User: Fold this.
Amino acid sequence: MKQTLVIKPTLFTELNLPESLLKGIEDLGFTEMTDVQQIALPITLAGKDVAGQGRTGTGKTATFLITAINRLLTTEPKQGRTNHHPRALIIAPTRELAVQISDDAAKLAKHTGLKLHTVYGGVDYEKQRLGFENGVDILIGTPGRLIDYLKKRVYSLTKADMLIIDEADRMFDLGFINDLRFMLHRLPKYDQRQSLMFSATLSHRVLEMAYEHMNEPEKLRAEEGDLTASGITESMYHTSMDDKFPLLVHLLREADVKRGMIFINQKRTGEKVARNLARYGFSVGILSGDVRQQKRTRILEDFTNGKLQLLVATDVASRGLHIDGVSHVFNYDLPEDAENYVHRIGRTARAGAKGTAISFSCERFCFGLPDIETYISRQVPICHIEHEMLQIGKPTSPKATAEGLKAEDKAEQHDRPKTGGRPGGNRNGRGGPRRR
Assistant:
């Protein structure tokens, strides 16, 4: 595997891209390339395979999308290709990431006439199947749903010109590697297509897959040194579990946070935090693994469009969500996996912007702090808590609830005795003595 250094262009207009693609780039307000794009795009646009490592928020999604769109606009389809054959396949490990890639691709390809289709689990199967009928140029999806349609011959990969695998390390973590290999074996041979693979870490297992299924890929590590973006201001509060919520409310008010993400480790904690934030007057949504896909999509759209001020999330949202303007990330719970710290705080300061990441180290999750600081090779600055910071008053909207929770969410019932509303109730919610 080669490792290449190239002279880096700085503007997208230097890349000799088709006018229709440049127009999409301009619509998004992109002019100067990020460090990753400056290194990778001259190589990928030349048709070479790449195995790239880059931290979150570096512009790698735009890198592979621009490459794919350019290739499809500037090269002829394979002989015998029909509407049944997508020309480019993009595989993502999670639904959220697939949706985000799809949104970015639609914006970049807006003026090109290319047909895009995205498939993933949790939504109507037949509706997604019908999306293939008019032909697909770029197919984006998660492994399970992609394989379902492939086995039913809804589409074929035999005429594909391009393969892109995003978050390759996450594919291994989620147990998708066998599904991924199944699809790789149904593509044209490695020397008959261009392949791009991006990963937060180029581990041995990721590189092994690259050697096996790619054509002498260039290995790119665009950023050495800090794993976190330089635009992130990090801080840490050592606090008790009981003080975490009032401290969070104080910090949200003090910074007047307009768009922030709050990460928790457990769904039940997130439900409680989201519910209480709503009662203190914040517009908030919650995102966890078992929120129905339709609702997840709507919550993300509302957050992106500014209808929701805050998003409370488990690590399902720590990768793949490229939402502009997230000014603050709060680690309400320190992650138990050090790598997730980097992914979480990478939701802010994206593509050269500035951002703030604040973490709470409590008695339950503080044991993960040494691993985090070892992983990022530095200590996170400590801030001190003043007594006044915990005086937040009473809820302003006692009956308010977060988006993604019902007004009387089942999880809330855990916080109340199951008595049917009367003292002395039994397990069945009936008052009085239990029947024998």
Observations:
- The longest helix spans residues 60-74.
- The chain is about 35% helix and 15% strand.
